[in-house]
Amino acid sequence: MTNDMHQALQHSFDRFTHRPQWLVLATVLGDYLGHVAQPNVTVEIDRAAALGGAAGGHHERITMEHGLGAVQFGLTVGDDGFVIAAFVGSGWVLCMKFTGASLPETLGTLPDALVSLVQLEAEQR
User: Fold this and answer.
1) Within 13 A of 65's CA, how many CA atoms are on the CB side?
2) Is pLDDT of 1 > 70?
3) Which residues, at least 6 apart from 12, have a Cβ–Cβ distance to it below 8 Å?
4) Contact present, 117 and 25 (Cβ < 8 Å)
5) I need a surface site. Which of 5, 8, 29, 104 has the fewest CB within 10 A?
């Protein structure tokens, strides 16, 4: 992971009032690019990257089939938290796991949290 990528990931992590347990950046093909996690949180990085790529494909297909336009993010909500798979440009997916966070507040923060990563992805294209 490059220093620019680490800074962009840290910027994303820090934008949220209630920090995610972890966030993992992957390509839309599921290749790992980088991650940030809270201290003492275990992350299955390879699994999260692979699931990020798979979620990207899944949500892209859904938006296409239902005529929703370009996909921005996908959401999985459970009893104990939620995971967001957010598209970063056209080639990356950022997966984030939250527990104890407000879903509406988190979704409202999402565009600002992705700005640095979107710019970096565009530069690397």
Assistant:
1) 6
2) no
3) 23, 36, 94, 113, 114, 116, 117
4) yes
5) 104
